[in-house]
Amino acid sequence: VVASATTELRHVSVLFCDLVGFTPLAESKDPEDVRELLSGYFELARAIVFRYGGLVEKFIGDAVMAVWGVPVAKEDDAERAVRAGLELVSAVADYGKEHDTDLKARVGIVTGGVATTETPEEGMVIGDRVNTAARIQSAAPPGCCYVDETTRAATAVAIAYADAGKHEVKGKAEPVHLHQATRVVAAIAGSQRSGVLEAPFSGRDHELRLVKELFHASAERHSARLVLVSGVAGVGKSRLAWEFFKYIDGLAGDVLWHAGRCLSYGEGVSYWALSEMVRARLQISEEDPQEVAAERLRTGLERWIPDPADREFIAPRLGQLLGLPTAQVLAREELFSGWRLFFERLAEHEPVVMVIEDLQWADAGMVDFLDHLLEWSGDHALFLLVLTRPEGTEKRGLVLSRRSVTALPLDPLSDEVIGELLDGLVADLPALARASIIERAEGIPLYAVETVRSLLDKGILAKGSDGALHLVEELGTLEIPPGLTALIASRLDALSPDERRLVKECSVLGGSFPRQAIEAVTDGDPSELDEILSSLVRKEVLTVRADKLSPERGQYAFTQSLIRSVAYDMLTRAERKARHLRTAAHLRGAFPDEGAEVSEVIAAHLNDAYKVAGDDPDAGELRAKAKAAYVIAAERAESVGAPEAAESAYLTAADLSSDDAERAHLTERAGQMAQLAGFYERALGCFETAVAAHRADGRGIDAARVTTWLAGSINSLGHGEQAVVLLREALASLDLTTAPPEVVAELQMRLGGALYFSGHRDEAAEPIEQALTLAQHYELAEPLAGALNFKAILFLTLGRLEEARLNFEGSLVVARRHGLTDREMIVEGNLADLCMTLDLPGAEDHCEAMLALARRGGARDNEAFAAQNLMYVLMMAGRLDEAYRLGTTVLQSGADESCPAISFICAWRSWTR
Amino acid sequence: LRLALLDALRGHAGSARQHLSRCGAWAASDDVQSRSGYAATESGVALAEEDFRLALEAALRAIGESLRGGIGLAHEAIRLAFPCAVDAAMAIPDLDEADRLVELLTSRPPGEIPPFLRAQIRRARSLSTAARGSDEGVEEGLLTAEEVFRDLGYPYWTARVQLDLAEWLTAQARVGEAVEHAGEAAATFERLGTQPMLVRARALCESDAVVAFGGVESRGTG
Lengths: 913, 222
What we know:
The complex is a heterodimer.
Chain A: E1 7-19, H1 22-28, H2 31-51, E2 55-60, E3 63-68, H3 77-98, E4 105-117, E5 125-126, H4 128-139, E6 145-147, H5 149-155, E7 159-167, E8 176-184, H6 205-221, E9 225-230, H7 237-250, E10 256-261, H8 272-282, H9 290-304, H10 308-321, H11 332-349, E11 352-357, H12 364-376, E12 382-388, E13 405-409, H13 415-425, H14 431-441, H15 445-457, E14 461-463, E15 469-471, H16 484-493, H17 497-507, E16 512-513, H18 515-521, H19 526-538, E17 542-544, E18 556-558, H20 561-569, H21 573-590, H22 592-595, H23 599-611, H24 619-639, H25 643-656, H26 660-676, H27 680-696, H28 700-716, H29 720-733, H30 741-757, H31 761-777, H32 781-798, H33 801-817, H34 821-837, H35 843-857, H36 860-876, H37 880-893, H38 898-911
Parallel strand pairs in A: 4-6, 9-12, 9-13, 10-11, 11-12
Antiparallel strand pairs in A: 1-3, 1-4, 2-3, 4-5, 6-8, 7-8, 14-15, 16-18, 17-18
Chain B: H1 2-9, H2 13-22, H3 32-48, H4 52-68, H5 76-91, H6 95-106, H7 115-131, H8 138-152, H9 155-171, H10 175-192, H11 195-205, H12 208-213
């Protein structure tokens, strides 16, 4: 049965693309090479047309015809066709370079009504416009994309055009007015079009293409990829991200885009960039009250996470990130696993892009999370574009040697490219001035842009009717300060006094800020505020965030972070103090729960106010407030699993404290955070300081309590003997009849462990028994579970295997009853080991239980331990293939060659924990 | 290390050595468990390389470290190292060393010795006795070990002892009894992909004595 063709008139955009001069090229090359070259070109064209939602209608020789609007029309068909056209000419040129061939494409696009038919043998689209598109393409110079007037009118909000004049087109009575598409200047349908001066995107085509290709590879192969774009201020990192955003937004398929910045203020709010991205996805604004944020979290998760069990797991972990009240404070690995699962589930809907700006200011936790994501979510379509100044590439925690990380350093541009950029900005810049700017720019495009902005500020340049900038006054001798900082300072000097004052005031607020914050810090007349802000936006000192998904939508931001730092340096001491205090007060009021989520920022503002207070009468009060704020900040960082940030905040609080006991306590807390983060040397330093301070002031019990931690650090550093000495001294210093039982039980339990580890197995039993007695008498869960575990290990080494098993099981019961997850995981591992080595049933179940706990909690070392035990069980059971697969998986998930070995060592050691 | 062991069992000696070399730092670790674990695996790899003296030396190192370090007989380093040491001692041959190894373990209280090691001790005694030309208790020891390994659900070791028994029975001219054990062992080694032992089992199945008897396949045990 042959279906009859149905023909209808539809509104479509038709694209024609052909290769210029391909015929002579084909004659000079080997036919096999020509076939391969052409085949690659067709693949490239097909992929680009597909990505932009078009259909390849046919290939004719070296020409490609594609159409948008069939079988289903979309409102942005014309725009996607032009985006595809621009991408085609750029991609073909790069494709030619890759094959040592000067290959250029030209593109013609028309939009309008055409007859379409569904019979494939006739093609889908026929009519005059198809012929016109082919002829417009013939009129385009090599490497250019020409469009007709209808296409231009439909797409001008998002595409920049140059007038290409009128052309005689065969079959048309009148010459046709054509336009050359030059670049994409906005997201789809013109949204987020930048109001600020946008220079042509010059000299970074290769980098942008690499980013696009890596993104598509990540999306198509379902693999995680991090691209680390690094370069000095003004070199074009943010611009690259903006071009990438416009590209992604123009694609036909959906991509889940997320962007977040690391804050420069203070030492960075823990996970701020991550929290920004999560808020945007769940449509939670910074100012939303907690109940609103909680409701949006719930509905957002219902939308994105189909499995109720996943939602139940993710919700409290995201809640903790967003500063919502949670029933239980979760450890960092627990949080990481929930956050990771959230992005993994998103990636199961559509490919996920995460753009993180200013990594150089990131807190250690944020960097660790990025690494965690790469390590654990390698088989998900997660594309991370991370922008940083060069110092950010040295951040601890980010493993640049990972196969899934691509470093993309941006070097300064050549003088030639800076010249092109200037020419694209100003139509008629005198040669001398042009050369002078190029020389001073030293390859930094922002310098050229800022110079042009300063000329605009001075009224020397103005926008003409053609949309380009032109000289409207005599340029005279162009005096350009050397260096970007001096250039920006001279621009600020040229502002009106009111404008300059407001810029300086805003500089205290950070990189971006809402209008209410500006009101809070300014001394100016509120009624004039909008006018001054408008002027500063016009002069491109400030910009207004327009991203509809961002929780910062509508906020003001400095167009360049350097403007903020230059303006801040202009503030006097008194001005700084007043503004910092006002900002802290504003933040407390603006954010829920007294600004808990931004507590690090509030603390930093108060501290900065204190630092410049000098001998002011309120200096002492400021110091106390700053200290209290740092304690809140530390507790918040601890609650979101950022122990390094918490350690830093506790130490700052300790420095600010004027009370000796409190200082020792805060130093101890800092040590605990360092220990948690695995920085044993730093932890050791803190605990030693705290113990010495407690002892000096006669707080013997506190000194003994901190000694349990100190011994833990020493043990972790492999000095068990020294730990034994310290713990014995601490016990000896206490009156055991009056000392708090929890302190004594903990000391005894630790002493038992330290004795065992340092080879004094026979002496270990006594303190373990003491710990057990006290722990049971006073219902102390942690020393009870810990001591039962150690006792089991002792029995094991004595060959009293049944008692070992019973004690492990007892420890497991206590750990489960009291939610001691870490202890539970370790004991599951020890029980697995016991069953395995004693040939008892249950080894596999215990291995699986430990593996599940380790994976849920993101405990990589314990995962390796569980996996290697499971491998042994499988080997013995004759399931060698399964064992091999498991081992290979663990090996592949390692960061580098040394990782499996390290995991293994940790695994062996944790057997005896 | 686990992958090294798996590769060694399957006869991929090069790959096994490569995995082992990644963990080279363990050999000189301060941690007795790390040192003994490395040495036990090294012994298994050396066996796959047919470097029996190194295999014996590494296994003795693993056992010595474990016992001196007080980590107990139940530790897996000993479970891995003991059978390696026995195989190496029999291959060299160094029967005195094999006897010393058995003595070392049996001098411990029986409650400290898990079933797997008890079966390995029975196997080691039988092999040593047979190598000295005596038959006393050999068959019984191997049959007991086979039964224990089978009960524990350890097919590789069940097949190993079946092969040991088949080889001994063949030497005793009891080919009819040997073929069943040899055929079952070969089938297990084939299923597990443990090539070196499969080659040894097949060699027995294809030996003149077995072929003359009618071969393994004709008995339907392959």
